[in-house]
Design brief:
Blueprint: H1 3-10, H2 13-19, H3 22-45, E1 51-52, H4 61-72, E2 81-82, H5 85-114, E3 120-122, E4 126-131, E5 134-143, E6 149-163, E7 169-176, E8 182-186, E9 189-195, H6 207-212, E10 216-225, E11 231-239, E12 243-245, E13 247-249, E14 253-256, E15 260-263, E16 271-273
Parallel strand pairs: 4-12
Antiparallel strand pairs: 1-2, 3-5, 4-5, 5-9, 6-7, 6-8, 6-10, 10-11, 13-16, 14-15
Length: about 290
C-alpha cells in the first residue's frame, strides 16, 4: 500500500483494518493497545496516592501501567485498587473504553475472517495471434481456491487516452466483446478471448498508436463463493508492454502415451512463437 493510500485509509479506520495484511492488523492492535495504556498510565500518575497496595510511598510508573492493564482487561487481582475519587473516575472511564475496544476488535476480526477473498490468478501476459481467421487477444484466468466459483463473469475494457474535438484529453474505457464472458461453474482455468473484428476498440489501431495513447487492457472478474455464498471480485490490467504480438499460450491439456489427456497447470504462463499478425485497419485508412 503506497503512502497516499495509507493517508486515505487512516481517515476511515474500519476500511484500514480490513485492507491491511494480517501481520499489520495485529501490529496496529498492539500499538493501539500500548498507546491506550500509556495514556491511562499518565492519568493515574497524576494522583500518586490514588492507588493502594503499591510497594512504595507513591505509585510508580510501572505500577500505574500494570494497574491500567488489570483495569482494561477486567482482571482485578485485588493487590492494587483505587483509593481516591479521581482514580475511581479514571477506572470507570477506562472500563467503559475497554468494553468499546473489545467490541471493535472483535467486530474487525470477525469481518476479516468472514470476508471472501477471490484468489483469482491472471496470466503474466496477454497474447495476440490469429484464431479462427481473426486476430484475437487472449489471456488466462485461474481459480486458486480449488473450490467452484458460481456464476463467474469477466469484463474486459480498453483503457486509452483520447482527445475530444475541443482538445480535452480524457482517459476512456471501451468495452471489449469476449467469445465467452460468463461461466456457471468456474473450477480450474479459463482462456479469455477477444476477437479483433470491425466492432473491436482495437480495430484499426497500430501498436505504435496504442503505445502513444498509453493503452491498457483492464479486466474485471466477479463471481459467488460456493462455500461462503458471498460475492467475490478481482481485477487486473495488462499494459501494452505485457501484450505479446505473434505469441500464443501453450496448451494446458497434454497427451499422455496410451493414457489419454492430462491437465498440466505448469503451462499456465508458457507461450510460444506463432505467425505474427497485424491489427486490421479500417476501410480506406492509409497504410
Amino acid at each position: 500500500m503506497n503512502p497516499a493510500n495509507w493517508i486515505r485509509h487512516w481517515r476511515y479506520p474500519n476500511h484500514l483494518m480490513l485492507a491491511v495484511p494480517w501481520p499489520v492488523f495485529f501490529v496496529l492492535i498492539a500499538m493501539g493497545y500500548l498507546l491506550l495504556h500509556l495514556v491511562f498510565t499518565g492519568l493515574y500518575w497524576l494522583d500518586p496516592h490514588g492507588i493502594s497496595g503499591v510497594s512504595g510511598p507513591a505509585t510508580s510508573f510501572m505500577e500505574a501501567f500494570f494497574f491500567s492493564v488489570h483495569t482494561l482487561g477486567s482482571i482485578g487481582y485485588g493487590a492494587l485498587y483505587p483509593s481516591s475519587l479521581f482514580t475511581n473516575l479514571i477506572v470507570t472511564f477506562e472500563s467503559l473504553v475497554g468494553l468499546i475496544l473489545i467490541a471493535l476488535i472483535t467486530g474487525s476480526t470477525f469481518s476479516r475472517f468472514s470476508k471472501s477473498t477471490a484468489r483469482i490468478l491472471f496470466s503474466d501476459v496477454a497474447t495476440l495471434h490469429s484464431y479462427n481467421g481473426l486476430p484475437t487477444l487472449m489471456f488466462r484466468v485461474a481459480n486458486e481456491r480449488r473450490k467452484t466459483i458460481l456464476d463467474a463473469r469477466i469484463r474486459a475494457y480498453l483503457a486509452i487516452d483520447e482527445r475530444t474535438p475541443e482538445g480535452h484529453r480524457m482517459r476512456r474505457l471501451h468495452p471489449m466483446t469476449l467469445n465467452r464472458d460468463c461461466s456457471p461453474l468456474f473450477l480450474l482455468t479459463w482462456t479469455v478471448m477477444h476477437p479483433i473484428d470491425q466492432h473491436s476498440p482495437l480495430h484499426g489501431r497500430t501498436p505504435q498508436e496504442l503505445s502513444a495513447s498509453q493503452a491498457d487492457i483492464v479486466v474485471s472478474f466477479s463471481g459467488i463463493d460456493e462455500i461462503m455464498e458471498r460475492p467475490i471480485h478481482a481485477h487486473h490490467n495488462y499494459p501494452l508492454s505485457q501484450v505479446l504480438f505473434g505469441q500464443a499460450f501453450v496448451d494446458m491439456m497434454q497427451e499422455e502415451d496410451g493414457e489419454g489427456q492430462s491437465f498440466d497447470f505448469a503451462n499456465f504462463n508458457r507461450i510460444y512463437a506463432c505467425p505474427s499478425v497485424e491489427l486490421p485497419r479500417p476501410a480506406g485508412a492509409a497504410s
